[in-house]
Amino acid sequence: MTQKKPSSTDRRRIAQEKIAAQRKIEARRQRNVTIAWVVGGVILIAGAGTAAWSAISTTNKQHASAAASAQATDPSIDKNTSLLASTAHQSDGATVDGVVGSNEMENLAYHIHAHLTIYVNGVQKTIPYGIGIIPPYSLDTSSGSPFVSGGSAYYYLHTHDETGIIHIESPNSHVYTLGNFFDVWKEPLSSTQVGPAKGTVTVYVDGKVYTGDPDSITLTKYKNIQLDVGTNVPFKNFSWPSGY
User: Fold this and answer.
1) Residues 169, 206: contact at Cβ < 8 Å?
2) pTM of the entire predicted model
3) Is residue 149 part of a domain?
4) Which residue has the higher pLDDT, 117 or 80?
5) Mean pLDDT over each residue of the chain, to the nearest integer
6) For a Cys staple, 96 with which of 24, 38, 87, 100, CB 3.0–4.6 Å?
7) Does any domain span residue 116?
8) 54 to each of 30, 47, 206, 229, how far by Cα in Å?
9) Residue 31 pLDDT > 50
10) Which positions ≥6 away from 205 have C-beta within 8 Å?
11) Is residue 224 within 8 Å of 115, Cβ to Cβ?
12) What 8-state DSSP symbol labels residue 129?
């Protein structure tokens, strides 16, 4: 029996079906490749995030230990003094002064420290932990002193503890000022007022009297700043603990 040859219409239909089937195969293959890339990318990003978080966590543990040591041994730190001002009304995440932003994690691209000491009528005042760190806080007290090891966001300028150490951690090497720090804290700073304390302000920077506006003092590496409101207290140097 002679087999009937397919008509031109049948041949066209068969060719179209083959093309459609091939396109389905290609589409399925492409989806699999895309999924693999996405999954791989997530794994890589997660890995990078884990590494970054691990580095930050290690740094914070070192700083917590160093801070506790500094509080325990440095005579310039009086643990019994009262708080200058709380962090209750500090900035809540918006950019401050057009240059100080915040991140969900600490940014260690540019990472230095400066130190601030404040006296009011001869009495040293405590600078609180958590300035520039948005609650809720994770507090590490394993070293005997509170250290903020976590928060919902971090400003480029912040404090982890009550030693007066200001952490400058930002995505670039912009030079910030003491005024920027107080603006994050939302406390006033001038030649006649520091936080809620009012009176003539004597300023020392690295042991020398500073006659300019305290608001303009730059926060550079290991700079030691002392503000005396009212009674003039001779400059007391801060001994930087290891780990900073």
Assistant:
1) no
2) 0.71
3) yes
4) 117
5) 80
6) 100
7) yes
8) 36, 10, 34, 41
9) no
10) 217, 223, 224, 225, 226
11) yes
12) T
Q: Which two tokens stand for residue 94?
A: 């918006």
Burial class (CB in 10 A: 0-12, 13-18, 19+), 37: exposed
Give the pLDDT of residue 14: 52
**132-164 residue pLDDT tens:** 999 999 999 998 889 999 999 999 999 999 999
Cα 168 from Cα 174, distance rounded (Å):
10
Q: If you count them, how many residues does the chain have? A: 244
Quote the CA–CA distance of 50 and 55 in Å, as a whole number.
9
Q: With respect to residue 143, please indicate whether it lies within any of the assigned structural domains.
A: yes
pLDDT computed for residue 5 by the predictor: 57
Could you tell me which of 131, 136, 142, 166 has the C-alpha nearest to residue 57?
142
Element of type H or E holding 53: helix 8-73
Domain of residue 59 covers: 53-229
What is the pLDDT at residue 143?
A: 84
14 vs 150: CA distance, rounded Å: 65
For the chain, the distance separating the N- and C-terminal CA atoms, rounded to the nearest angstrom, is 95
What's the one-letter identity of residue 145? S
